[in-house]
Structure formats: structure tokens, C-alpha cells
Amino acid sequence: MTPSGLVRLALGVALASLIGSNALAAQTNVAVAANFTDAAKEIAAAFKQKTGHDVVLSFGSSGQLYNQISQDAPFQIMLSADDERPKKLVQDGLGVQGSTFTYAIGKLVLWSKSPDVVKGDATLKDSKFAKLSIANPTAAPYGAAAIETLKALKIYETLEPKIVQGNSIAQAFQFIDTGNAELGFIALSQLAGNTSGSRWLVPQELYTPIRQDAVLLKKGASNEAATGFMTFLKGPEARAIIEKFGYASGGQS
Amino acid sequence: MESLPADIWQPVRLTIELAAITTVILLFVGTPIAWWLARSKAWWKEAVAALVAMPLVLPPTVLGFYLLVLLGPNGPGGQIASLWGARTLAFTFEGLVIASVLYSMPFVVQPIRNAFAAIGDRPLEVAATLRASPRRAFWTVAVPLARPGFLTGAVLGFAHTVGEFGVVLMIGGNIPGETKVLSVAIYDYVETSQWREANILAAGMLVFAFAVILTMTLIEKRVARVGA
């Protein structure tokens, strides 16, 4: 056998083993709203352990992810932070009809890194702070819920000049975490396992429930890792993780 | 046709303000640095030059990350801000000016340094024999001869500040009229699917970038002709 023939053989074997392993363990790319970052990582790890399938996660604000998907991004599932965008993706012909369901219901929390700063809505009404961090309300549902809360408390106009916007809920958290903003509205899930600072769980009647829907995209319709992950997300193991991170797990829709 | 949002031009004004202030500061701060880099015989001057040039290679996220920490309440920025009772320089126009000065510095310093270096020792020696003080020689000989370098530096510094995005996104907080500059506004419009508004601003940037590059080329050509 000539040397080049040997190389070709080696390449062939390598390729065959690659294809072979792919047939056993598939991979799926999932777009995840930033608030669900930690929970998604844990669910993906549990899914991998159970099925051997890899889940590659990409995080961003729901608005950003929606735009990328509408421009043909290689995602097979979207875990949105709202129920509007998954619906729209189905209408746009990008999502699989009937695949959407509520995987989590998010909770809004007002958080400060310092103890004794946040003491309920009185903290907002007293307004003894310079900067209030929220997520961009047009791109991130938690940002919209924050605005809704301020309006319900009738303090939006007075606090508006103090608002700083993170590009996603992750950045809203980071502004508070670095101390640049004294407090802000974030997702309760971002504080899972974190008892520091002071917080106020915003009462549900002040904002529309944040129903977070998942949608299977057409790119993933025939991928067993993608369809398997959608099923896994509804199952008891995933639900336990979702609840651990401070969400109510969704009733099916 | 839908009417445009009234505030679409606010980021444009803000960006021009930011870029103009940054350029003026950089001409003042950058000129002595460029002069020293061009004239000094110190063995460590190239280390300083490398320091100034670092934003050319660093991802904006590196600068954004450190600035977010340094401008905050636990950093020097927070201490400065506490002078007027604030707790952070992040989310402020002043914070963006600091970031832009750091970020755009190589674009101003390098052309001026090159222009100073191109003068050589001779004209300054002649000025000295004519009893011009070093200060006078600097202002009446070096600066006029280096004028194309200043022009290039100013144009590039201005343009690069206009084009800044990552750092502002990380430390700005997206505040209209304060930190929501052009690049961030475009990103915001795209992210919220307001593509018509995004298009107007983005197309404007295309024209601006083309004009800047064309201007630069014409300056260089003219300099070459004058020099010949």
C-alpha cells in the first residue's frame, strides 16, 4: 500500500468512527433565555447522563435569540422567557406546530447585594438609591415585568431617571453584582443557592405571570436529541431542577 | 409611512458629542506621549508604546470588564464619583469618555508619533542654532511639520470612538441621552425587531465610514504631493 493510500485508509476509519459515534449520540443546539442559564445547564447535564446526547446551549435575551432564529441561526429548540416569541416562531413557519409548552413560570425579585437595602416596595417608594438595574424591557420579559411592577406601584415616572438597562437579565444581574447599581429587578432563578444581600419577592398581582415557553424548531424536528430533550424537559427530573431554581413548573399549554 | 420615533436622532447627537470630547482630550493627552515616544532614547519606551497600542489587539470585552469593575463603587472610579455624591462612573457620559480615551488612544498617538519621527533631528537642530528654545521649536517647527499626523490622528480617533460598541454595551446601561450611543441604539433596534429604524442609522454609518476612509486617503495623497 502506498503512503497516500494509508493516509486515506486512516482518514476513512476516523470518519467512519465519527459518523458511528454520531449515530449513537446526537447533538442538539438550544437557544436559552438568559434567566434560565443555570437551570438549563443542569438539565442538559442530566439529559446527557441519561441519553448520551449532547446539548449545546447558547444564551441571550429572548429578543436577540428570536431575531437570530428568524435569520436562520442553527438552533433546534428555543427556550424563551415569554410565550409570545415561541408562538410567533410557529406562525413564521420556523417552529413545529403544536410543540410549544410552558416549561417554567418565572418569578421577579428585587435584589440588592447589600443586606438591609431591600425591604419591600417601601424601598422603591423611598427611592434612596442612585441606580435601579433592569433588563431591556423590549427584549427581555423580566425587564417588561419590572416596568409593569413599577407602574402598578405608581412610581414608574419618579424612578425612570434612575433606571439602567442590561442587555439581558444576565447583564442586569451583573450591574448589581459589581455594585454599579445598588439594586435591581432580576429573576429569582439567578439567586438560586445565593442567600447574600437583601431581596423582595415581587407579589404576583403586580405583574403578568412570566410564562416561559419552549418551542421545537423545524431544524430540530427530525433530530432525536432535540425531540428527546423536549420530552425530557416535561419529565419529572427536569421539573425538579426547574423548581429547585425558583420557578413554578408550568402547566402544559 | 409610519413616522419615525422622535428620539432616533438623540443617539446621533450623543455620539458626536462623545467622539468630539474624546478627540480633544486625546489630542492634549496623546501629543506629549507621541512626542516622547518619537524623541526619547529611553530603553523602555517601546514598552510604553506597546501599552498604548494594546486596545488594538484586546477584545473590547476585556476593557469593558475591567472598566465595569474599576469605575464601580469598589474601584477608583467610585471614589472619584463619591466626590459629587454618586457611587459609580459606570452608566455615565463621563465614564464613556474615560473608556473612549483609553480605547481610541492608539489611533491618535500612533499617527502623531510617526509624524514627529518623520521630521528627524535636523529641523530641530537648526531651530536650536537659531536660538529657539525647545518649547518654541516644538510649537513653531515640530507641530506645523507634523500637521498631517494630527489631522490623521484626529479623524481616526473621532471615527473609532463613533464605532465603539462592546465597551459601551458593557458599562453604559443603555440610558437615552447619557450612554445610549449610535452603535448601541442600532443594536437595540435590531434586537427589538425595529429594523426600519436600525436601517436608517446603520445606512448612515456606512456613509460616514466611507467618507472617513476617503478623507484619510485624500489627506495622505495630498501630503505625499506636498512632500514631493
Keywords:
heterodimer; A: about 250 residues; alpha/beta; D-Maltodextrin-Binding Protein, domain 2; 2 domains; 5-stranded mixed sheet; 10 helices; about 40% helix; about 20% strand; elongated; B: about 230 residues; mainly alpha; MetI-like fold; 11 helices; about 75% helix; about 0% strand
Structural account:
The complex is a heterodimer of chains A (253) and B (228). With 253 residues, chain A is an alpha/beta fold. Chain A is built from 10 helices and 10 strands. Chain A has 2 domains: 3-105 and 212-244, 3-Layer(aba) Sandwich (D-Maltodextrin-Binding Protein, domain 2), CATH 3.40.190; 108-201, Periplasmic binding protein-like II (D-Maltodextrin-Binding Protein, domain 2, 3-Layer(aba) Sandwich), CATH 3.40.190. By secondary structure, chain B is mainly α. Chain B has one domain: MetI-like fold (Orthogonal Bundle), CATH 1.10.3720. The longest helix of chain B has 33 residues, at 195-227. The relative contact order of chain B is 0.15. The model of chain B has no long low-confidence stretch (mean pLDDT 91). Chains A and B meet through helix 3, strand 7 and helix 8 of A and helix 3 and helix 10 of B.
